[in-house]
């Protein structure tokens, strides 16, 4: 690959394909697969990821908000798109672009029915979300009768699927809680089907759910982080390949004398002769201040260079005293062989957060295959 020349998030679509095939290998061949592409496909490139997944015949996409679904439709994506957390103010636009809402409360159901009636819809596909223990969004188990009543005599919408979300699918210590959630969901599904007169398909598992509770795959699963190369455990990370690599270059080298300081607030004070490299990457690009002062490090020519001093808005300084490097040399922040999960751990956070934090200012490049 040519020199990157500036801070770049490199996206490896063959890694995406590998991860998709790996996750599918855990499932029955007939189980549908929904690719979660919210938040710019976990900070990567939503359109590029969705186009690749569509070419691999993925069954569904999910985004969080209507605006994200619009970007996919504008890019020519025709696969069904579930909107996990649509706001009523966007319901009309949602229908105009054939996006499918998650309806999670009587209030939301009522408002959606109104918009669907106004827009003269018939059997518009919707997905009903049930809360089984996460206590975030969703109808309760005892709302089933009420839902059926609300839909009685209404032809504007049709429940295409019902779903729920596990609270701790990655945590083996919460197995009993997860299994209870699964059992509750099955009860809800049985109760609803008996009253509805038709059978919506069901889904409950996220990435860690696919790995730890494949018996609860129902008719579809929803995966995000696994597709992007992370499995919420060191063991699973070995089977997956990071899709996004954040790279930058060295802008300038500085010789620091004993007693001198580096960066804002003079946060790093040198106890000897050191060399620092200044990189064009800062908290405005998504590497937050919590990575500063020796917590996070980058990789230059295969060696770790810790961040010294405070993270600035547009720059960080790293210690390269023991690394033979020059201005213009490439720097890996995270990616293949130096995972975003490891980087995130240095600042007490998780891969999800550092990936989705990479701001739109950072150039996205698709790695040539
Ligand atoms: C984000 C999200 C997912 C994807 O979870 P991963 O852990 O990234 O696989 C699945 N379902 C819902 C409801 C979500 O909000």
Tell me about this structure.
It is a single chain. By secondary structure, the protein is α/β, with parallel strands linked by helices. The protein has helices at residues 13-24, 38-43, 46-55, 66-74, 91-96, 106-118, 144-151, 175-196, 207-212, 234-237, 340-345, 351-357; strands spanning 8-11, 32-36, 60-63, 81-83, 100-103, 124-129, 157-163, 201-203, 220-223, 244-249, 252-256, 261-262, 268-269, 274-279, 297-300, 303-308, 316-319, 330-334, 363-366. It has an eight-stranded parallel β-sheet. The protein has a five-stranded antiparallel β-sheet with strand order 11-14-17-16-15, with no helix packed on it. Strands 18-10-1-19 form a four-stranded mixed β-sheet. 44% of the residues are buried. The structure holds pyridoxal-5'-phosphate (PLP). Pyridoxal-5'-phosphate (PLP) is lined by residues 36, 84, 165, 206-207, 222-226.
Characteristic terms for this protein:
single chain; 369 residues; alpha/beta; eight-stranded parallel sheet; five-stranded antiparallel sheet; elongated; binds pyridoxal-5'-phosphate
């Amino acid at each position: 690959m040519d020199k990157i020349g500036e801070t770049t998030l490199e996206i490896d679509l063959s890694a995406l394909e590998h991860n998709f095939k790996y996750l599918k290998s855990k499932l029955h061949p007939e189980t549908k697969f929904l690719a979660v592409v919210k938040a710019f496909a976990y900070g990567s490139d939503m359109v590029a990821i969705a186009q690749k997944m569509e070419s691999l015949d993925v069954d569904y996409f999910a985004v969080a908000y209507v605006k994200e679904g619009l970007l996919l439709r504008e890019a020519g994506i025709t696969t069904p798109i579930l909107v996990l957390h649509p706001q009523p103010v966007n319901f009309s636009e949602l229908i105009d672009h054939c996006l499918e809402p998650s309806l999670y409360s009587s209030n939301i159901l009522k408002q959606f029915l109104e918009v669907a009636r106004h827009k003269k819809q018939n059997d518009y596909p919707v997905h009903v979300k049930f809360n089984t223990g996460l206590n975030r969004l969703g109808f309760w188990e005892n709302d089933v009768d009420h839902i059926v009543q609300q839909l009685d005599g209404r032809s504007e919408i049709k429940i295409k699927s019902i779903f729920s979300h596990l609270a701790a699918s990655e945590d083996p210590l919460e197995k009993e809680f997860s299994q209870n959630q699964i059992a509750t969901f099955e009860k809800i599904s049985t109760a609803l089907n008996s009253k509805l007169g038709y059978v919506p398909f069901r889904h409950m598992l996220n990435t860690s759910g696919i790995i730890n509770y494949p018996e609860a795959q129902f008719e579809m699963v929803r995966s995000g982080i696994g597709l992007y190369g992370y499995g919420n455990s060191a063991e699973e990370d070995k089977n997956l390949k990071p899709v996004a690599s954040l790279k930058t270059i060295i802008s300038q080298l500085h010789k620091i004398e004993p007693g001198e300081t580096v960066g804002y607030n003079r946060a790093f004070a040198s106890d000897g002769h050191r060399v620092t490299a200044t990189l064009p990457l800062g908290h405005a690009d998504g590497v937050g201040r919590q990575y500063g002062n020796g917590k996070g490090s980058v990789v230059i020519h295969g060696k770790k260079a810790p961040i010294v001093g405070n993270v600035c808005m547009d720059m960080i300084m790293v210690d390269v005293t023991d690394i033979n490097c020059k201005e213009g040399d490439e720097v890996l922040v995270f990616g293949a062989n130096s995972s975003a999960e490891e980087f995130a751990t240095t600042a007490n956070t998780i891969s999800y957060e550092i990936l989705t934090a990479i701001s739109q200012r950072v150039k996205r490049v698709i790695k040539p295959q």
